[in-house]
Amino acid sequence: GAVVSQHPSWVICKSGTSVKIECRSLDFQATTMFWYRQFPKQSLMLMATSNEGSKATYEQGVEKDKFLINHASLTLSTLTVTSAHPEDSSFYICSASGANYGYTFGSGTRLTVV
Amino acid sequence: QKEVEQDPGPLSVPEGAIVSLNCTYSNSAFQYFMWYRQYSRKGPELLMYTYSSGNKEDGRFTAQVDKSSKYISLFIRDSQPSDSATYLCAMRTQETSGSRLTFGEGTQLTVNP
Hints:
The structure holds two protein chains of two kinds. Chain A has no helices and eleven strands. In chain A, strand 5 and strand 6 (about 55-60) form a beta hairpin. By secondary structure, chain A is mostly beta strands. In chain A, the strands form two sheets. In chain A, strands 2, 4, 5, 6, 9, 10 and 11 form a seven-stranded mixed sheet that branches. A four-stranded antiparallel sheet of chain A has the order 1-3-8-7, with no helix packed on it. By secondary structure, chain B is an all-beta fold. In chain B, strands 2, 4, 5, 9, 10 and 11 form a six-stranded mixed sheet that branches. The N and C termini of chain B lie far apart (about 35 Å). The interface between A and B is medium-sized, with 27 and 20 residues.
């Protein structure tokens, strides 16, 4: 079946630094990738949608300059949290979708900004 | 009003019980329905995917869709402690790779041994 690898699974960083999260589709080509944020005991909140080779489409209220998304190939998308602050601490999940495949989620990244 | 409503629970049942999880939706354009299971600090995993109104069965899981009532359900038979997780319903309007999913809040389920 379709597999999406997300790294790192958890990261702690200092306030003001940047953190990059990678999402790879291992056995299929992901034409579209979605990035979500999830707070404890809440559902997934879509942050942005990215298509390979195109700029990401951000949801209302999501700062595109803070959450940089790159989808340079059909198997890799990255989310960079720039100048992270404690309020950016959250669980970030990617999801990849391609032809004939549904939506496959990564295992998530727990970001803690101290 | 949210497009998708799901009781967040928590729901606690004894091992072996039949579990019923439900979602209602307001957007009649939703045509494709999914149930995901999410363990703590993990990404969601797909359990069931349905399109037509009616029932779809896979092992101990049965997904039910009633488009006329805008109501979907997931039944778990002979529930096990390993079923303890958060269950999310999700739906979308189109079956294309770029169409977004709309999620319910998720129902937290605990199956007690």
